[in-house]
Amino acid sequence: MHKPFIIGIGGAHSAVGKTSLAAAIIRHLSQHPAYPFGKKPCLGAVKYTRTELYASLIEDEAVIKQEDKDTARLSTAGAEKVLWVKSPREELEEPLSLALSKLADLDGIVIEGNSAIEFVKPDIVIFIFGESKENTKISAEALVRQADIFIAPETVSPITRTAISSTAKWVTLNDYPYVFDDRAVQGIIALMETIEKNKEIERLLKERSVDGKISCTLARKIAEDLNVPYGDVGSTANGLKIKIKSCELGCF
Description:
Elements: E1 5-11, H1 18-31, E2 43-50, E3 56-58, H2 61-64, H3 70-77, E4 81-87, H4 93-102, E5 108-112, H5 114-120, E6 124-128, H6 141-146, E7 149-153, H7 158-164, E8 169-173, H8 182-208, E9 213-215, H9 216-226, H10 230-239, E10 243-245
Parallel strand pairs: 1-5, 1-6, 2-4, 2-5, 6-7, 7-8, 9-10
Antiparallel strand pairs: 3-4
Helix pairs in contact: 1-3, 1-8, 8-9, 8-10, 9-10
């Protein structure tokens, strides 16, 4: 069954750069396909805005493409379809599920909004810190624990980064408000590729190993299919305590 690859973008507070990054990623992927997309992907986008009164799903292009709307920026960037979910947090599940069902035939979906990410559990979560970690909303703390990639100012020290997460990847930028130029976006997408390939290596090793062992032939095929160094497969196998047996070429 087809499942779109979902990228979630959240942030420490409003106006931190979520829409700018979402648009930049859509624009770049539309022009330069990257793993896990084998070709130019057809992408959709979901913008979430928290409201106090009622839930709604907006798909009217006349509204979506209004010049002053964040949704227009996502559409202009190259999203095939943009949907706007407005909802109190406690009523979010229904309109968000409906939005995803309307985009289910696309290759990928970029979702912007902290609460939306918590409900969806995307394949990749990117979290944008503001000028200072201390400005992070309490409501964003749960999302910090889910993040695969953090965007932060260069002033965030390595010690602070480790305290926040010892496993997530970090992208540090000079300026705030952030400028997501081609170089920055290329770096972020390269990290996304690495993270996804590592997840796939782990999945395939677990799937193809028997009693904690996998043949050298199968381990090499995983590396070659994913176009990663043999050592990446070997180190992941070590971490999973899976033994590569009958090594033929000394690859592992």
